[in-house]
Request: fold
Amino acid sequence: MPLSKHPLLKIAAPLLGGATFLCLLAAVGQQHLSANLLDFGRSLNPPTPGFGRYLAYASLFASLATVCFVVAAMRFLAWRRPTVPWGHIWDQSAEGKWLLYGSLLAFVIPAALRTWLLHGLPITDDEAAYRFMAQLLAQGQVVADSQPLKLFFDNRFLINDGKVYAHYFLGWPALMVPGIWLGIGGWMNTFYSALTVPALYRIVRRLAGQRWAKASLLLFLSSPMLMLAAATELSHTSCIAALAWFTWFCLRSRDDDAGLGVHAATAAAFSVAFFIRPSSALGIGLPLLLWWLVGVLRQRRGKLAPMLAFAAPAVLLAVLFLYVNWLQNGSPLETSYQRAYAYAQENDFRFSLWAGQDDHFKEMQWISWPFLLAVAGSAILRLNVALFGWPCSLFFAFFAGRGTLRTTLRLSVLSYFVLHALTSNVGIDSFAPMHYFEVAWPLLLLSACGLATSEIHAKRLDVALGQATGWRWQALPASLLAALVLVAMVSYLPLRFGAVSRIVEDIGKPFDALEEAEIHHAVIFAADPFVNYCSHPPTRGWVFVRPNNGPRMDDDILWVNHLSLEKNRLLMQHFPDRAGFVMGWDRGCNVRYIPLEQLPPGSVPDARVSGIDEVGR
Reply:
């Protein structure tokens, strides 16, 4: 038999080709892209130049590797045609086990990433603000009192105008509270990740059938963007969990046997998502709310009761939302985001997100249509790689097929992008386009539907070409999915997780040095920046400022801003039972903690803060 006709060689050849393309991609990264030390952490909109070059290579070599592995899989299935179709075996596996194991993995994967990749550390400054508010809520408060000499305690994302509170909405901190009580606040996202699985499975089963409902769990669990977010203390995972159940209850509300509790649950789930991230909830939810309303209005009788059931939790949470605004900001119609910028102005922009008045107005560039479209384009490009790590993560979403809910989900994607035209950037680039994160939810559902629709078309190819080619074309969508996940795990995940690991190494240096110095019950006057990303340039993270202290100021270590040695000593009079240390970075990229009492005047430069002489303001 000629070698070209031998079935094993026909399978091995594309496998070898796929491995070769992946090796080419790895070699390019090693030799021409600074050993894949890419410049993450330096852009809020388009990919950085280094990552952009990687994407150019990956779009070619990862795509070719995927094609090769698909060809190998199809040739193998043609050679070893199973007596029982794979789809039958897949379909007959117990749903209960899929839900159990899927939920367990949705918990375990983020937990493992938090333990061994993040080491329990934040990767953005936002996380400290969420934790502070969760601690505050755990005490039954929505604001704390400002400390004397409050400039030492000013920090990004905090309003400190006599009352101290974060400028974020309280939905996610409220969901963290059980974890704060139990001492596992940093792990709460892993629970909400697991809670998303049952809703995801039920929705896709209704839309695309049991087979692709199971495949949707693979999409969810293999998404580096979704799993990494669930390992952090950011709000995106809990928002997606709320949106998932909101979508399910919308779908369930159209059933003839849907009771009033379903309509109430629809409103409650949407309201929770709104309390977590209002713009994301509105962007995804408005088309779905309209779809729910149309379903209610089409009922032959009893239209009023479902609307009243919906209104009860919606009104309750709306009143609570306005009440929190009033407690924090003095007006039910003023959000903490608005108050944060007003406070920054009052505080001369010291220790704030903004450098000054002009910096704030730069955020209004969305008014320019070219800028608006450029931000949207950057979001699409970054989502395309971040969502699943594939050369084209949005591929299957384009083939989602027809149906009212599928159309509504497409409108949710469009609505999200239109509403987020109000933002001036896509968001940090450590692992995801953060300001466009929640649009992953409808894209995930549309991708699962696209797989199901692709299988329908593939079955037609079986009829037209199966006998001539010998290939089982029905298996093409599943083979493509498996190949894409495999290529992402080999090429993209090591790159992205490696970058996060290097970022975390730098973020952990102040804490590692503190542990080595065996410092306890102390006040640390933190350097600016708190983290110096000097170990693995040009990779950089998005933690720049010191941690927040707990609302009761009873932590073992109190972190405060360094102002000047003279003023630092003034603050220590308020903490006579604690030792004071000044933190700094040396030229070797190491953190040093020097006792305040050992530092002579002028040995440490004063902080560069406008209005520094007005410490008590």
Observations:
- The chain has three domains: 3-94+470-494, 105-362, 507-598.
- The chain is about 60% helix and 5% strand.
- Residues 3-94+470-494 form one domain.
- Residues 102 and 217 are 6 Å apart (CA to CA).
